[in-house]
Amino acid sequence: MKGKLIVGNAPIAHADHAAAETVSQPAAAAQPLPEGLTRLPQPQVAPPIERREPELVKVDLETREVTALLDDGVAYRYWTFNGSVPGPMVRVRQGDTVELTLKNAPGTQLTHSINLHAVNGPGGGSVDTQVVPGDSSTIRFQALHPGVYVYHCMTPMVGQHVANGMYGMIVVEPPDGLPKVDREYYIMQGDFYLQGDRGQKGLRAFSLDKLFQEDPEYIVYNGSVGAMTGERALHANVGDTVRFFFGVGGPNKDSAFHVVGGSFDVLHPEGAAEWLTDVQTTLVPPGGATMAEMKLSVPGHYMIEDHHITRLQKGAMADFEVEGPQNPDVFEHLGAARPAGQP
Prior knowledge:
single chain, mainly beta, Immunoglobulin-like, 2 domains, six-stranded mixed beta sheet, 2 helices
């Protein structure tokens, strides 16, 4: 079956993804690194829903192209929602009516759109939000099902748009809200496909060949290597109950979500209303998300990771620093190990 992608005010009609609009790739795999670049800003966790009655919620998103650091000495031209990867967390209540306006910033290279997995309607909203640069489109939908859902660009070639960073999360709380916790975190994993050699410095270009081969150079949390490490680490205190909203933008690789040194007291696989308890690692597919909670009982340095363990070297990890009094009833260090050969 073949079809056409119609841009402007007309909808997308069974677009032929193989013949999709793409950006031509530069002859050089890397250009000189622009001065003054930083990593993308971190998206904030949207606050919990306190009200218990449905409302009309208005959401504004803008697709933007942003050049920022993907790794130390490595820059990339991201395609984003609102200038961050992932895009903003949208948080509503089951039964809310959501009026979402998508604007495509002037000067972008391509048409963009949005498919929200929480939407019941054609293309998750993407049929009616195929927006050319400088234009906008508005949809209205009811949040029917509670859960944790991914949204992403759905303009062909979809894989390229997602691989460049066009994904985020929408949380639909149940009518009575979520249980209160002390802290919440918003993390999404994505894979990036670059021309050139691994570790090559400079402003790197997207590789269509590596995308088709599903061979990413980087697999990262929140848009870059080290986005949540060192001075950008996550923080909490002993005694806190924390909640992770974790999703995978992809476009191709899943994630074995794990906290080194802890287990999830409560896990909502795929963000479902039903939950599991005492889970060590959970598998999250591309286009999927989960919600996990844990109570922190011992201070120290923890690591959040994709337990496809070699992906640590590609960037799929975050630092998690927990402060507070020691708790020897739960864990203590009894002494240094003796060197080999000593009694």
